[in-house]
Amino acid sequence: MGKIKAIILDRDGTLIEDKDYAYKIEDFELLPGVIEGLKILQKNFLLFIVTNQSGIGRGYYTDREFHKFNDYLIGILKENQIRIERTFYCPHVKEDNCECKKPKIKFIREIVDGWNVDINNSWVIGDHPSDILFGINARCNTVYMSTGHGERHLNELEVEGITPTYISNNFLKAALEIVRVK
Fold first, then answer.
1. Annotated catalytic, 12?
2. Cβ within 8 Å of residue 118, ≥6 positions away
3. Structural domain includes residue 114
4. Does the structure show a pLDDT above 80 at 148?
5. 1 in a domain, yes or no?
6. CATH number (domain holding residue 169)
7. Within 10 Å of residue 92's Cβ, how many Cβ atoms?
8. Active-site residue among 10, 18, 127, 131?
9. How confident is the model at residue 177 (pLDDT cuts 50, 70, 90)?
């Protein structure tokens, strides 16, 4: 049997509305097409979340508040028969120069090693140029979402010479494109 493929998902702005440091359950809002798209993707891929959470490092919210909010998301997905293998998060600010902040690939290496993932046939989906660089640095396919902060940073892709495999403004459309080219 061949190696397993994965979808590595950014969280804020990709799966949920990015309300600038989302950590309050009352602010929780799934983006359109996420449930339907994840259901399609999980037929052929393991699902992971990898998220930069500098709000922790900035003192805007705590580790505990992050986990409470993220557990709420995982619970909603589970109610919809969607399994997230694991959530990886970086609590650091850029100035910490840590090894876990995207676009560094520490968490992708952990996914590859821990789940025997074929990264070259896997995908990163996110709404920041750093998400796309994260995928490119790991040598996997990428979808740039113009949801969340995506529209605001779209021109940075061109300026910085970052080329995603695919650009989408809707999660379900992105999922259908991924399974079409898988």
1. yes
2. 2, 3, 4, 5
3. yes
4. no
5. no
6. 3.40.50.1000
7. 18
8. 10
9. very high
